[in-house]
Amino acid sequence: MNSFSFGSGSPKPYPKSDFDLESGKSIKRSRKSKTAHLHPLRMIKSFGSRLHYHFKLHPFMGFFISLSLGISILLILSIYESHYRTVNSYGKFDLGLDDYPFPKLQNLIMVAGHSIYTSSSCGKIEKEESWYLEPYQKIAGQAATFVTHIQEGIDITAKDDSALLLFSGGETRKDAGPRSEAQSYWAVADSKGWFGKEESVKWRALTEEHARDSFENLLFSICRFRELTGSYPKNITVVSYDFKQERFANLHRSAIGFPETRFFYAGTSAASKAKAAALKGEALVRAQFQKDPFGCQSSLYHKKIRRDPFHRSIPYPNGCPEMQALFRYCGPAPYPGSLPWA
Known about the structure:
The chain is α/β, with parallel strands linked by helices. The protein has two domains: 49-92; 99-328, 3-Layer(aba) Sandwich (Rossmann fold), CATH 3.40.50. It has helices spanning 40-57, 59-92, 142-158, 181-191, 198-201, 214-229, 245-255, 275-291, 298-306, 324-328, and strands at residues 18-20, 25-27, 107-112, 116-117, 131-132, 163-168, 205-208, 235-241, 263-268. The strands form three sheets. The protein has a five-stranded parallel sheet with strand order 7-6-3-8-9, with helices on both faces. It has a two-stranded antiparallel ribbon with strand order 1-2. One of its GO terms (cellular component) is cytoplasm. The chain crosses the membrane at residues 60-80. Residues 1-34 are annotated as: Disordered. It comes from Acacia crassicarpa (northern wattle).
């Protein structure tokens, strides 16, 4: 076969690129990247279109998937919030012992309040008219028993150089005004010159001003001790009436799992004319705490509500983060979880 060569006037083969017939020039087009279809926005739109298509085909499946996704998100947010609050609370009190007011004190002496001092003068502290008394408390000699408790707490504290004295009791009586039982006891002690032990005791005598019943006297005072010392009490001594020993030393102590060998009770006598009625009333209250150890249900709970006439916000357990679960617990049996003093 003959081969022919094209001369200068012969037509040239078509260019590989696009050709503009009017201008006689080739058009260079940019080559599309092979990864152009992987653009994030396009991927999202594509995924959304496919999801919408499947939801139209299977509406019930789509509903359950959406519901499950929503519940999962809520659970994650709830866990995160709980973790954040716990970490934040621990961080707030993650201090060195030297940063606390009383880091060297190890034992707690708690005097449970029973009334509020309402007199404008401290000259008649043993007179019933100087205190706000409930009808069952209006008995001759009742005020003197409060003073005895105060002095007993001071005497015990003076004998223990490592003890912190706490007067415990909140603003429990509306007609007494916004004054706490704890502040009343502290003021009476101060007016009496701390019964001759001011230099030894006054600097380590403080208040817990939110308790509304005997169980909270103990629980809140332990938390307050943690706030002030940075640690939990090695030993606890409660000062109250002798007929309440069973309630404090057995019911309340066992409810929070505090060791019996480190718990002590200093009981003083009730007014002579009040003993019979006091024993009868105590038996009733003790029976209620046997059924409801934490005072969080039925009549004990409603009694606490009545003893909070000014709706004071309780700050605990912010000062004792290790006790958070104990403060939330409500049941007929002693707290089953771990505790810092166990």
